[in-house]
Specification:
CATH class of the largest domain: Mainly Alpha
Number of domains: 2
Number of helices: 11
CATH superfamily of the largest domain: Tetratricopeptide repeat domain
Strand content: under 5%
Largest sheet: 2 strands, antiparallel
Structural class: mainly alpha
CATH topology of the largest domain: Serine Threonine Protein Phosphatase 5, Tetratricopeptide repeat
GO cellular component, one term: cytoplasm
Strand order of the largest sheet: 1-2
GO molecular function, one term: peptidyl-prolyl cis-trans isomerase activity
Main location: cytoplasm
Keywords: Cytoplasm, Phosphoprotein, Receptor, Repeat, TPR repeat
Distance between the termini: 62 Å
Pfam family, one: PPIase_AIP
Order of helices and strands: HEHHHEHHHHHHH
Helix content: 55-70%
CATH architecture of the largest domain: Alpha Horseshoe
Oligomer: single chain
């Protein structure tokens, strides 16, 4: 894991321990129970990170009493037992690397709310530049990071509230950029899921219909693709040349598929 000096990372005792160490050093620290009461919650977050999940997964915006109720079980028997009966803990710590102040780019989950808001436009710009350079996978990762920042903030708002909606409207263009990358990476079902989620909230989003139509066409959902492209034309007739090109491409692929099927079935019946 990575610790940022001054952030305390929920367990100030870890930062206190690290300040006594040098790069490459391996040391053991025994910490009294009063210093590690929050360790079960922190450990759950670290396990989420290791599994590629949101570290705050399962937490929600509510009062402290409700939070305690929510965390009655953390989903791990060992952490549940430790939460019920706090114990002194021993940590083996090895310092792998120390970076200079200002040189470290934080992961989104490690940022404060203000830092997340400030980082989103910069991450978005980095993603756009990577996409222009043809580095589609790298661009998708940047868009994902920006979305993660905003999603984390959105979790703290009441769904449907003005602040929640404002954050959602910032997420949508980033998610569409992410879908464009996934189209190029031929990850069509992910595009279908994300575009559908956008259209469930914003029924007039032309870009979402267009990208979903391309994804439907790629996986041979012909009727759905035609319906999405028709919706694009209904919302923005000026896109007729682009839509016509996609429909011609779809029809050409269908003809090729029919020809291949005829040859394949002919061979089967001849045997």
């Amino acid at each position: 894991m990575e610790l940022i000096a001054g952030k305390k990372f929920k367990l100030p005792v870890w930062e206190a321990a690290l300040r006594t160490m040098r790069p490459g050093e391996h040391a053991r620290f025994r910490c009294d129970a009063k210093h590690v009461v929050l360790y079960p919650l922190v450990a759950k977050s670290l396990r989420n990170i290791a599994a590629g999940k949101d570290p705050l997964e399962g937490q929600r915006h509510c009062c402290s009493v409700a939070q305690l109720h929510d965390h009655y079980s953390l989903g791990y028997p060992d952490l549940d037992e430790l939460q019920k009966n706090p114990q002194p803990l021993i940590f083996d710590i090895e310092v792998l690397k120390v970076e200079e102040p200002g040189s470290y780019q934080q992961d989104p989950w490690a940022m404060t709310d203000e830092e997340k808001l400030q980082a989103v436009p910069l991450i978005h710009k980095e993603g756009n530049e990577l996409y222009r350079q043809g580095k589609v996978q790298e661009a998708a990762a940047k868009y994902y990071d920006a979305i993660a920042c905003l999603k984390n903030l959105q979790m703290k708002e009441q769904p449907g509230s003005p602040d929640w909606i404002e954050l959602d409207q910032k997420i949508t263009p980033l998610l569409l950029n992410y879908c464009q990358c996934k189209l190029q990476c031929e990850e069509y079902y992910e595009v279908l899921d994300h575009c559908s989620s956008i259209l469930n909230k914003y029924e007039d989003n032309v870009k979402a219909y267009f990208k979903r139509g391309k994804a439907h066409a790629a996986v041979w959902n012909v009727a759905e693709a035609r319906a999405d492209f028709a919706k694009v034309l209904a919302l923005d007739p000026s896109l007729r040349p682009v839509v016509s090109k996609e429909l011609r491409s779809l029809e050409a692929r269908l003809r090729e598929k029919d020809a291949e099927d005829k040859i394949r079935f002919k061979d089967i019946f001849s045997q």
